[in-house]
Write a structure and sequence with these properties.
The chain has 398 residues and is α/β, with parallel strands linked by helices. It is built from 16 helices and 14 strands. Strand 11 and strand 12 form a beta hairpin. The two termini are 12 Å apart. InterPro entries: Luciferase-like_dom, Luciferase-like_sf, SsuD_RutA_monooxygenase.
């Protein structure tokens, strides 16, 4: 495809992030949505290889997810910290599962062990049934007020130099501390969600605000909302913006789309057989993020350069499930579209988990970093976005 010469020398948008870090999600065994393998355990050789592939591929961070039936995220984050010298482990944590002073201690310990690499992603909880599996019966609104209180206690535990007491809506204790200190000043705190409460807490208090992949216009308005809340709260900084995609890549756009349609057929078939997923199929999800994902999917399949929503529809909006489809060049260009809106943390995790992580590190991450280096050196965009239009080419949006 021939580049549009008018695009080649465009200045870098004022909103664009200049430095970007790449995130993966660490898988514990070879089971995937394409090829489910019944297992509740950790395949240690696979896990080691996965972490090392992230390091070799130039990833910066990896998320250790949390669920009522998953491995413990703190223990797995500790393992990542010892298997890699560079990867920053992100602990997914639900406030209902651990008292905040204990969580502060655990996170500070992880930060010390990894010499400042620890992060935490707080999950307030978007599904009543999943929360109840571990004894949490608060309403959604109450869960968010608990998260708000949890954040304050975490930070006080890391920074106060004298014992302190707390008496709040959800937590009470006397004369705690001073707590165990992190390696750095604090451990960065991420918050995600699409509810009003999530935006309010995240805008006021989070170091990072997390989004699932949505169309560019919608992400733009959501980023602006987070920034506006931050400013109105008196903050002089802004939360970093984290966006998550499930790229499907191949040598050409056409081959990638053929792979994508094969993938979604397999995902739908496996989803329909899974007894856990059968209970949610056809039901309206409780969390706003999943509702939005399904709404986008119901409107159309393809948005912008490469965003594909059929993967989200296939799993009834469960989890981060929107794809970017195309050649490595087209997907890298699509990622840059989001970087241009201010995203500086980009999570890319695949459906063929280990092989995709290796391919992203070989073919996608270097292209994005090359473009960012060009921008830093010249103050101008390179030609990648103009050369690889993806769906823009057929939609007349180029």
């Amino acid at each position: 495809m021939t580049a549009d010469p008018s695009q080649e020398s465009l200045p870098v948008p004022a909103s664009a992030a200049s430095k970007v870090e790449f995130i993966s999600l660490t898988h514990l065994n070879p089971s995937t949505e394409l090829n489910p393998i019944p297992s509740r355990g950790i395949d240690l050789p696979f896990f080691r290889r996965y972490v090392r592939s992230l390091e070799d591929g130039g990833f910066d961070m990896t998320l250790l997810p949390y669920g009522s039936n998953t491995a413990d995220s703190f223990v797995m984050a500790s393992a990542v910290g010892q298997l890699s010298d560079t990867i920053k482990p992100i602990v997914a944590l639900r406030p209902n599962t651990v008292f905040p002073t204990v969580a502060a201690q655990q996170l500070a310990t992880l930060d010390q062990l990894t010499e400042g690499r620890a992060l935490v992603h707080l999950i307030s909880g978007g599904n009543d049934a999943e929360q109840a599996r571990q004894g949490d019966y608060l309403t959604k609104e109450q869960r968010y007020t608990r998260t708000d209180e949890f954040v304050d206690i975490l930070r006080d535990s890391w920074t106060k130099t004298e014992p302190f007491s707390h008496s709040g809506t959800h937590y009470k204790f006397d004369n705690f501390g001073p707590g165990f200190a992190p390696y750095g000043a604090q451990v960065p705190i991420s918050i995600g969600g699409q509810s009003d409460a999530a935006f309010e807490i995240g805008g006021r208090k989070a170091d990072i605000f997390s989004f699932w992949g949505e169309p560019l216009a919608d992400i733009k308005s959501q980023i602006e909302r987070v920034h506006r809340i931050a400013a109105e709260s008196g903050r002089t900084d802004r939360p970093r913006i984290w966006v998550t995609f499930r790229p499907i890549i191949d040598r050409t756009d056409d081959l990638a789309w053929a792979k994508a349609h094969d993938y979604v057929d397999r995902i739908e078939a496996n989803f329909s057989k899974n007894p856990v997923y059968k209970t949610i199929a056809g039901n309206t999800p409780q969390n706003v993020g999943s509702q939005r994902a399904l709404d986008f999917a119901n409107r159309k399949d393809i948005y912008d350069r490469a965003l594909w929503t059929r993967t989200a529809a296939a799993v009834n909006g469960a989890g981060a499930s929107t794809a970017l489809v195309g050649s490595a060049e087209t997907v890298a260009a699509a990622i840059l579209d989001y970087i241009d809106l201010g995203a500086d943390l980009v999570s890319i995790r695949g459906y063929d988990t280990l092989n995709d992580a290796i391919d992203y590190g070989r073919y996608v991450v270097p292209l994005v970093r090359q473009e960012l280096a060009h921008r830093e050196a010249t103050g101008k965009r390179g030609t990648l976005q103009a050369d690889h239009l993806g769906a823009f080419a057929t939609a007349g949006q180029a």
